[in-house]
């Protein structure tokens, strides 16, 4: 086996990379290994494809504008059971696997939780043997690279594709035309039926690239099919010949802009026309592709819902409802009712947020200019939908306003959430609380008209990447204590609970954690220059920078703790390292100020000799999947402190608890289900509940009360806004803090005291030693339910109607 791998790698190095192994760089070795691994994945993929086609199996299509994959080499090798073999082969060749692995750039085709969820789902679908395609965009540039300069975030373009990627196959035979703009022609057939033909004003080619997604033990391999935009004509020769070089390639630039950049906005639609072009581009290509596959195999389109399930990952691909209707009506000549029955039986939609500013809408003018025929279809859909609503609730004309796909208030808009809801047979939220809130708030009236459509599917994470690959030390313990089958069946992790009080096990768990923390401390020193003690409590908040996630609450507590330590330096403080990482959307001013505040506090605290090593503050730049893989196994405390009702689920919360971090958190998103699984005694819950948050919001209760009631809070707000941490620019944080003194939309001030108190409970528990490790073990033991295999099995059974044996 090892010798086979060795010759495969050498053969790739010589014949595909084109290098003499004696002169190969780490990146060359990565290429050779990836190409050798891809060969094996591809053989599995082709096998599976034959089976699916011949057995008439139903396929799942996961449409997502984001797939946040990260590095792939370890994932692919490990899932093919080849990791040890390749590691040994490289060692024989005198090459260090770690260096080879690290030479791979992250595929960062996503912003945060939503994109990472799509990547976990692709891996779980392949693991469960579900024939699935992921469809998305092959962005030339993924999420921007974050550099911290003088404490401020700067954004630089990300370049994962500049040297190509060894994982993908260009499918030269899979190219589709995607149209934009133009006009719609209406005519009446001799039989008296009105038909419509769209004449786009512009056409772009969608070219496809497939990347194999390998399931655990290579059970199946599914394609992730990403579309790249190409101009139909690369050059306008008549302009080129006249010397107008820029004009000659301007069509090309305009077309290729579609797949150039990932939009870096997270949960705030940018509303720009290019974004709608991206959405329609990949949706149209994907639907043309899957319809032509269906017709090739089954002939007739009426059987589509039995053979295909299409999942919309949030509303970003929701224009698919209108595009499917257009294809069935205009291109395939089906009557409306049949087209609608096929469409709504095939689609389902996942909602990932209820934040009002994050619900996607498009001004009618923009929509009409870009997609005139689709707007027409949406009007038709909406008329029928409103008729049905009127019939069901004749006494409630105002209900029509909330369920309409067209928002009639200030400037008419298409509401993509309503479109996705109306055109789907199943709509799901991503945690129990979130789904409950969907039924009560945003989709309340739609839920009354279609009461069976909303379901819950609590998110999950793939244990292969987030436990086995990233935390081999902990995995080794689990195999020994719970049995080797733990890597196939996470449910047996539960066996750990019986040993939670065993001091030998506790010692081993602590030793693994310490080793992981030592590794993280090294990364922290390399990237920030700050030296931290691996024996201290590692307190971690890693996620996109967002006001609702309340990094500011964490920083205010840090500032208050700093003051308390200075005031009483000889008390029995718990040595802590506060670790924060995350990117802010480039245009999100407050989020960028919060990053600056983190770095300013770090400057002051880390250089104050009075604090000694009791408190260190670290902002790690350029958070991404690869950095998460180092931070998560090293965390002691997981910060999940969003305002109740605002975090749809969270998935980092699951990764951290699975790796033995205790959670300090609000009753929000999946935190509630984590508490239900690990038990109240093994989690630090604080803060307002969802009901208390809405009570305050409804009464307009503002920050004044909380500030007046808490001298510590008043003090820390004054310190930050008074320039305590920004002596070079004392007014720097006045506006940020004034936001808390006024509306305080995210109720930071209301939760401050209860958060501070919860942190002191954390200190006490950490100082007690044994109970902390016990709790950590109980956390690990009770996380099996959060495997994305469980989540995907639920989608398969309850939404897609696809067989699955888990
Ligand atoms: N989420 Br909408 C994103 O990461 N990006 C988005 O644009 C939207 C939602 C997140 C939610 O904030 C998080 O709570 C959830 O766990 C995740 O999606 C996956 O469902």
UniProtKB/TrEMBL annotation:
One of its GO terms (molecular function) is 1,4-alpha-oligoglucan phosphorylase activity. This is Alpha-1,4 glucan phosphorylase. Keywords: Carbohydrate metabolism, Glycosyltransferase, Pyridoxal phosphate, Transferase. It catalyses: [(1->4)-alpha-D-glucosyl](n) + phosphate = [(1->4)-alpha-D-glucosyl](n-1) + alpha-D-glucose 1-phosphate. Gene3D superfamilies: Glycogen Phosphorylase B. Belongs to the glycogen phosphorylase family. InterPro entries: Glycg_phsphrylas, Glyco_trans_35, Pyridoxal_P_attach_site. Allosteric enzyme that catalyzes the rate-limiting step in glycogen catabolism, the phosphorolytic cleavage of glycogen to produce glucose-1-phosphate, and plays a central role in maintaining cellular and organismal glucose homeostasis. Phosphorylase is an important allosteric enzyme in carbohydrate metabolism. Enzymes from different sources differ in their regulatory mechanisms and in their natural substrates. However, all known phosphorylases share catalytic and structural properties. It comes from Terrihabitans rhizophilus. It is an enzyme of class 2 (transferase).
């Amino acid at each position: 086996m090892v010798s086979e791998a060795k010759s495969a790698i050498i053969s790739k190095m010589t014949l595909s990379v084109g290098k003499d192994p004696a002169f190969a760089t780490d990146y060359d070795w990565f290429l050779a290994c990836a190409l050798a691994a891809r060969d094996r994945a591809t053989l599995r993929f082709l096998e599976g494809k034959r089976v699916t086609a011949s057995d008439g199996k139903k396929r799942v299509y996961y449409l997502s504008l984001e797939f946040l994959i990260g590095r792939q080499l370890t994932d692919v090798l490990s899932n093919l059971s080849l990791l040890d073999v390749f590691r040994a082969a490289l060692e024989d060749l005198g090459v260090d696997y770690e260096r080879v692995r690290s030479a791979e750039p992250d595929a960062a085709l996503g912003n945060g939780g939503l994109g990472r969820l799509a990547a976990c789902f692709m891996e779980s679908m392949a693991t469960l043997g579900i024939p699935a395609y992921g469809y998305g965009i092959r962005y030339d540039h993924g999420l921007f690279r974050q550099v911290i300069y003088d404490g401020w975030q700067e954004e630089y373009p990300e370049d994962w594709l500049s040297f190509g990627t060894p994982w993908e196959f260009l499918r030269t035979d899979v190219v589709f035309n995607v149209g934009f703009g133009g006009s719609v022609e209406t005519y009446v057939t001799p039989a008296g039926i009105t038909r419509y033909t769209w004449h786009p004003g512009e056409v772009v080619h969608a070219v496809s690239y497939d990347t194999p997604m390998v399931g655990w033990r290579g059970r199946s391999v599914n394609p992730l099919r990403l579309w790249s935009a190409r101009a139909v004509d690369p050059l306008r020769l008549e302009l080129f010949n006249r010397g107008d070089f820029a004009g000659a390639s301007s069509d090309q630039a305009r077309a290729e802009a579609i797949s150039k950049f990932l939009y870096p906005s997270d949960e705030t639609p940018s509303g720009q026309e290019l974004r709608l072009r991206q959405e329609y581009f990949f949706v149209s290509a994907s639907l043309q592709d899957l319809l032509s596959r269906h017709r090739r195999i089954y002939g007739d389109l009426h059987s589509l819902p039995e053979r295909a399930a299409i999942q919309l990952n949030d509303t970003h691909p929701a224009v698919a409802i209108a595009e499917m209707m257009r294809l069935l009506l205009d291109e395939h000549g089906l009557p409306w009712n049949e087209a609608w029955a096929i469409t709504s039986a095939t689609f389902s939609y996942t909602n990932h947020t209820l934040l009002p500013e994050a619900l996607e809408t498009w001004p009618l003018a923009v929509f009409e200019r870009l997609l005139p025929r689709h707007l027409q279809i949406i009007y038709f859909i909406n008329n029928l939908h409103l008729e049905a609503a009127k019939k069901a609730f004749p006494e409630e004309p105002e209900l029509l306003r909330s369920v309409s796909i067209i928002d009639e208030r200030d400037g008419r808009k298409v509401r993509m959430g309503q479109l996705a809801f109306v055109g789907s047979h199943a709509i799901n939220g991503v945690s129990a609380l979130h789904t409950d809130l969907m039924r009560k708030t945003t989709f309340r009236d739609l839920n009354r008209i279609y009461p069976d459509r909303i379901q819950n599917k609590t998110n999950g994470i793939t244990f292969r990447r987030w436990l086995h690959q990233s935390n081999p030390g902990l995995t080794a313990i689990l195999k020994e204590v719970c049995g080797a089958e733990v890597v196939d069946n996470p449910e047996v992790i539960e066996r750990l609970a019986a040993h939670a009080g065993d001091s030998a096990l506790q010692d081993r768990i602590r030793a693994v954690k310490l080793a992981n923390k030592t590794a993280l401390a090294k990364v922290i020193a390399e990237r920030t220059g700050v030296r931290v003690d691996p024996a201290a409590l590692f307190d971690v908040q890693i996620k996109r920078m967002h006001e609702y996630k309340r990094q500011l609450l964490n920083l205010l507590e840090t500032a208050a703790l700093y003051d308390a330590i200075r005031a009483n330096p000889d008390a029995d403080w718990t040595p802590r390292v506060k670790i924060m990482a995350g990117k802010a959307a480039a245009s999100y001013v407050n989020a960028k100020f919060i990053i600056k505040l983190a770095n300013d506090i770090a400057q002051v605290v880390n250089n104050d000799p009075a604090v000694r090593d009791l408190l260190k503050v670290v902002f790690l730049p350029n958070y991404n999947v690869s950095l998460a893989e180092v931070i998560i196994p090293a965390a002691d405390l997981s910060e999940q402190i969003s305002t109740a009702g605002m975090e749809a689920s969270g998935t980092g919360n699951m990764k951290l608890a699975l790796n033995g971090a205790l959670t300090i958190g609000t009753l929000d998103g999946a935190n509630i289900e984590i508490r239900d699984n690990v038990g109240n005694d093994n989690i630090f819950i604080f803060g307002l509940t969802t009901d208390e948050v809405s009570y305050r919001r409804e009464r307009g209760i503002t920050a004044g009360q909380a500030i007046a009631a808490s001298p510590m809070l008043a003090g820390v707000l004054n310190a930050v806004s008074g320039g305590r941490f920004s002596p070079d620019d004392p007014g720097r944080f006045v506006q940020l803090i004034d936001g808390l003194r006024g509306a305080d939309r995210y109720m930071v001030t209301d939760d401050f005291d209860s958060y501070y108190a919860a942190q002191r409970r954390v200190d006490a528990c950490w100082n007690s030693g044994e109970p902390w490790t016990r709790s950590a073990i109980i956390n690990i033991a009770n996380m099996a339910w959060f495997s994305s295999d469980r989540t995907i099995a639920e989608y398969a059974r309850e939404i897609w109607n696809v067989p699955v044996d888990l």
